[in-house]
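FAQ

Q: What does a record look like?
A: Structure on top, sequence underneath. For example:
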């Protein structure tokens, strides 16, 4: 937000900023505020990386979750009966789609 001096307020504590010289527009009122904001950002970055890593692990685990696969796909005339079912990893079943495999005997 711009204050009466036209510069703005400190991004950390909200104190009105004063431009000193012709340098770049200041964003923090002091080195302490800059350090505090940096520490908060570093903590948030670590937390974000932790959550991203956990989400990636969940997606990896889901790819290998067991699913029921139709040996002869329903789209190709297969039936939803015990003799036409087998266990397959989610990723294997998804990759197979509606293809009939070589070992299909029904």
């Amino acid at each position: 937000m711009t204050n009466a001096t036209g510069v703005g307020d400190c991004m950390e504590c909200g104190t009105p900023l004063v431009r000193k010289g012709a340098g770049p527009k200041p964003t923090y009122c002091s080195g302490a505020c800059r350090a505090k904001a940096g520490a908060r950002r570093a903590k948030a970055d670590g937390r974000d990386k932790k959550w991203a890593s956990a989400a990636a692990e969940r997606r990896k685990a889901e790819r290998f979750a067991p699913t029921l696969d139709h040996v002869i796909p329903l789209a190709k005339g297969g039936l939803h009966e015990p003799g036409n079912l087998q266990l397959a990893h989610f990723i294997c079943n998804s990759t197979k789609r509606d293809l009939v495999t070589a070992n299909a005997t029904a």
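Q: Is there anything notable about this one?
A: The beta strands are 66-70, 85-89.
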